[in-house]
Amino acid sequence: MNSIKRAPWQADALLLLVTVLAASGWIFSKEALAGMPPLLFIGTRFLLAGLILLGFAWPTLTRMSARRVRRGLLVGVLFSAAIAFWVLGLNYSDHLGESAFINSLGILLVPVVARLLFGDRPPRSTWVALPVALLGFALLSLNAGFNVEASQLLMVCAALCFALLINVNARVVRNVPALPLTTLQLISVGVVLTGLSLVVEHQPLALSPSILGWFMTSVLLASSLRFFLQIKAQSMTTPSHAAVILMLEAVWTALFAAWWFGETMTALQLLGCSLIFMALLINRWYWVRKVLLRWLPGGNPSR
After folding, report:
1. What is the pLDDT of residue 221?
2. What phi and psi, each to the nearest 5 degrees, are found at residue 263?
3. DSSP H helical segments within 207-284, as ranges?
4. Of 54, 128, 165, 180, which sits with the fewest C-beta atoms within 10 Å of its C-beta?
């Protein structure tokens, strides 16, 4: 049976909801950063989210070997680097929509990192998509006056780390169930970055009721609920099918930032973001085509 046929509409709906929650997380986080140091914010956010998911993952965790638990926690250290670059980039960013599209380059870089580190052969579409993505990023840099801004560089570093994380997850912890693995990694990120914040960050807290509200919204909706639903949806479909829908996160983020913060894009920013999104579509075109055929009336994904 074709794998796309096994993906029910419920999985697509859940994945769409996940992209909305993930994009909302950019807004929640930016608001919370107005009163919290970035590493302390993301560390405590992930620690609390991990502890919430621990209640659901505990039965499976108690049956896992100590070796698998250690691997999950160690891979979480790599996740810490990725999310640290992300939150620092977000902290410096004046344009969330642009940052979201740059961060989405991590999806495109997954096969490239696999080639460099593990000798895998990327699909031909990756080599077609890469020049398009690089041109898009170049246009975003030109918009800053021939300079790469700190937020842009940090988001590129985050994308590279996320691409490496996806590869490592697929190889090092491939036999660990998704929910306990996510829980272990969130707790690992929380411990590492909260501890690092206590050492290097000296920004005073400004925990007003509104900041606490944004923080808890980030914990409950953009972390705990988002990852729980993502794990559930991914268990109902194939990874490639899920990846196509999850690419919409950057689009939602740009729309939400325009609505909430009144962000607008210059012609260069719009073209640059469009080229990056086009590169993502090219890279996943085989699966994009199947998803479109699935959604269109009378479509036949097996063609």
Report:
1. 95
2. -70, 145
3. 209-217, 226-234, 239-246, 249-260, 267-283
4. 128
Tokens coding 210: 């509104």
Token code pair at residue 214: 């944004």
Q: State whether residue 146 is helix, strand or coil.
A: coil
* Residue linked to tokens 């400004």: 206
What lies within 8 Å, CB to CB, of 232 at 6+ separation is: 14
- Gyration radius of the chain's alpha carbons: 19
Residue 119, Cα to own-chain centre: how many angstroms?
24
- The pLDDT tens digits for 118-140 are 888 888 888 899 999 999 998 88
pLDDT, one tens digit per residue, over 95-112 is: 999 999 999 999 888 888
Distance CA 56, CA 89 (A): 32
| Cα distance between residue 210 and residue 136, in whole Å | 36
| Banded pLDDT at 294 (limits 50, 70, 90) | low
Q: How distant is the alpha carbon of residue 80 from its chain centre?
A: 13
Residues 6+ apart with CB under 8 A from 170: none
